[in-house]
Amino acid sequence: MILGIGVDTVEIARFERTIERTPRLRARLFTGAERGRPVRSLAARFAAKEALIKALGGSDGLRWHDMEIERTDDRAPSFVRTGPLLAVLERRRAALPHVSMTHDGGFATAFVVVEERTTGATR
C-alpha cells in the first residue's frame, strides 16, 4: 500500500544563484559524497529531499544529511540507509522510498513514493 507520494521541481538557474550567494548552503544541504556533483544534479537531489518530506508528511526527525541520495550499481538513484531515515521509516512502518529524478529544460524534478513495509525489516 502506498503511504505517501511527493514531487518537487527546482529551477536550476535560481538554485545555482542561491548556492553561489550563500556558499554554506552546499554543506548544509548535501553530504560530502553529494557536494561534488554538478549543480543540475544537486538541484535534483534537493528536489528529491523535498519530495521525500512531502511523501512522509513532514520532516520530523530528519535533517538534510539524513536524506542522502546515491546511485546504485544499476545507476538508479536511491536514498542511503542512514540511521535517522531508517528510524523515521520504522515509526511509519514504511519501506525504503522509491525515488526518480530528472533535470531538463532548466528544471530539476524528483518524484518519491513511500510504501508500507511488507516484511519485518526496512528494505
UniProtKB/TrEMBL annotation:
KW Lipid metabolism (keyword) present: yes
Enzyme class: transferase
Localization in the cell: Cytoplasm
Keyword Lipid biosynthesis on entry: yes
Residues that hold Mg(2+) according to the record: D8, E50
Pfam families with a match to the protein in the record: ACPS
EC number: 2.7.8.7
Cofactor or coenzyme needed: Mg(2+)
Keywords: Cytoplasm, Fatty acid biosynthesis, Fatty acid metabolism, Lipid biosynthesis, Lipid metabolism, Magnesium, Metal-binding, Transferase
Catalytic activity of the protein: apo-[ACP] + CoA = holo-[ACP] + adenosine 3',5'-bisphosphate + H(+)
InterPro entries per UniProt: 4-PPantetheinyl_Trfase_dom, 4-PPantetheinyl_Trfase_dom_sf, ACPS, Ppantetheine-prot_Trfase_dom
4'-phosphopantetheinyl transferase domain span: 4-82
Record function comment: Transfers the 4'-phosphopantetheine moiety from coenzyme A to a Ser of acyl-carrier-protein.
Family: Belongs to the P-Pant transferase superfamily. AcpS family.
Protein name: Holo-[acyl-carrier-protein] synthase
Gene this protein is translated from: acpS
